[in-house]
Structures are given as C-alpha cells and as structure tokens.
Amino acid sequence: MTQQVNDAAECSVGTATRLAESSISTDIGFLLAKLHAAGSVLNNAALAEFGLKERSYSVLALACGALGPTQRELAEFLSLDPSQIVALIDELEQRGLVERKPGISDRRQKLVAATKGGRTLHAAARKATQAAEARQLEMLTREEVASLRSILCKAVWSGNPSGR
Fold first, then answer.
1. Predicted pLDDT of residue 15
2. Got the DSSP string for 75-129?
C-alpha cells in the first residue's frame, strides 16, 4: 500500500465521520459509490506494479476466461464506450498481453484472447486484487463478505437488464 493512499485515508476520516450523520449516508447508491471509490484506490494501487488499472485488469481478466469475448461484449459488460474498450485492448495488445482474433461465425467481429504472458500476469495481478479486497473488507467477517457478495450478485445479475 502506498503512503499516498494511507495519507488520503487518514485525511478523510475526520470529515467522513462528521458527515456520516447526514441523510445521504444510508442511501444504497451512495454507499455503493463510496465502497467502489475506496476499492478503486486500493485496486489501482495493488495493480500499479503490474502496469494495470482496474479497467485494463478487467479486460485482461475477461480475456483470460474461456468465453472468448468480443470487443462489443466487453464494452457492454463493463459498461464502457466501445472506443474506451478499443484503447484498453490496444494498450494490452501492445504489451503482448492479449490478441485480437477474427470471430468464428462473423469474421468482422474481433474476439479478445489473453496470450500466455497475459495469463501469467493476470494470475499474479489477481492475487494482488484479492489482497486489496480483503484489506478493504477486513472489518467484515467471512460470512458477512459472503453475504455481501451474494446480495450484490443478486442485485446486479437477477432481473436487472440495465446492469448487464
């Protein structure tokens, strides 16, 4: 963990504690945004040693799977503009971590697949992100973390077409 992240966390504690009494502090959307913002800081710090950020890591993680996502699917799944996905894939491709392949049923589609180097880097980066997640949620029990994960998965993937 970098000193900058620790300093930022300590600096915001006083203000955060005082403002936690406001009415917005129990709004689910606000709480999710705060949790995501804090997680992004931790994840990006953990991923820095691999030359990745959350978005590029997400693309690499999906490219490492067996589903063979297209660029369009990645953009939709990650809720990013297609031009952002192209830039992320370009960066990963220049580093030799992913490659574009023509689609099987439609050669105009571009499938994104991790290279051997990409899979190796992803495995190490995944351990770092798991450690960052554990640090962020260290005040929760294992059961609470499992419940949180289950509830979030249910909210995102069950009957919520806009979240897909």
1. 62
2. HHHTT--HHHHHHHHHHHHHTTSEEEEE-SS-TTSEEEEE-HHHHHHHHHHHHHH
Q: How far apart are CA 81 and CA 68, in angstroms?
A: 19
Residue with tokens 């992240």: 5
- Let me know: does 106 contact 65? Beta carbons within 8 Å: no
pTM higher than 0.85: no
Greatest CA separation for the chain = 57
Q: Spell out, as residue ranges, where the chain has pLDDT lower than 50.
A: 1-2, 4-12, 163-164
- Phi and psi dihedrals of 22, rounded to 5? -75, 160
Summary count for the chain: helices (H), strands (E): 7, 2
Q: Model confidence over 75-114: pLDDT tens digits?
A: 999 999 999 999 999 999 999 999 999 877 777 788 999 9
What DSSP character marks residue 99?
E
State which amino acid sits at residue 87: A
Which regions of 1-160 does DSSP assign to beta strands (E)?
Answer: 98-102, 110-114
State how far the Cα of 47 lies from the Cα of 97, in Å rounded to an integer: 15
CA atoms within 13 A on the CB side of 116: 0
